[in-house]
Amino acid sequence: TQLLEQSPQFLSIQEGENLTVYCNSSSVFSSLQWYRQEPGEGPVLLVTVVTGGEVKKLKRLTFQFGDARKDSSLHITAAQPGDTGLYLCAGGRDNRLAFGKGNQVVVIP
Amino acid sequence: DAGITQSPRHKVTETGTPVTLRCHQTENHRYMYWYRQDPGHGLRLIHYSYGVKDTDKGEVSDGYSVSRSKTEDFLLTLESATSSQTSVYFCAIRETGSKSSYNEQFFGPGTRLTVL
Fold it and tell me: Do the Cβ atoms of B74 and B65 come closer than 8 Å?
């Protein structure tokens, strides 16, 4: 059973467009993280959200944690080819992280 | 840079042979993790360690063992490799100090293992 469901699994957009991807769960997490992974490399931490309703911005990326701390979204404004990658969400519980399967984003120049 | 290295980076082996993957960190982190990443499954936890000689199982631990005799090294062993263990293996450390409650993890570059 996948604790975290990410949607859409794959998204292809043109440079300059906006996009939003989602991470949903029926479980409550003490924290939720977003990672980006490029081919042949390990995931790289982008952000951690811990408070229900929290919004964090990282340049053109906006991360939101749901009020009930069960879901999150990532919005990219004016996407660039450098935003291409696999975006993974992960929920923290005890000493472990549960990962979603990822949102594969391709930004076409 | 969390100072994590993995070795080897690539390995091809045959079914039934033992394989050991090494994760090395330079910053004295207490928690270390081994994951495997497969298409359609995402990242899945194999084992983790919370100190020297202290380890616990993850969700896909069957067929794997781990050892941690020193803080800096966490070894993953496949006693008798099978084709289903063909995967990319990632080691991670958990940030400690003031951020330790958030379980932020930092990953190594991965090891691509092929079992023929």
Answer: no
SS3 (DSSP) at A39: coil
Q: Say whether A102 and B42 touch across the interface (CB within 8 A).
A: yes
Q: Is the dihedral of CA A31, B24, B4, A87 positive or negative?
A: negative
Residues, chain A = 109
CB atoms B108 and A42 under 8 Å: yes
Chain A CB contacts of B41 under 8 Å are 101
Report pLDDT digits (tens) over A24-53.
Answer: 998 888 889 999 999 999 999 999 999 999
Contact A92 B102 (CB under 8 A): yes
In a mutational test of the A interface, the residue from B105, B106, B111 whose CB has the highest number of chain A CBs within 10 Å is B105
Instruction: Specify burial of residue B63 (Cβ count, 10 A radius: 0-12, 13-18, 19+).
Output: middle
How far is B13 from B82, CA to CA, in rounded Å?
Answer: 9
Per-residue pLDDT of A48-83, as tens digits, reads: 999 999 999 999 999 999 999 899 999 999 999 999
Of residues A5, A2, A14, the one with CA closest to residue A83:
A14
Name beta bridge partners: A49: A32
Contact B44 A99 (CB under 8 A): yes
Contact across the interface for B102 and A50, Cβ inside 8 Å: yes
Closest partner residue to A31 (CB to CB) among B48, B102, B107 is B102
Q: Quick one: which of A89, A105, A100 has its CA closest to A33? A: A89
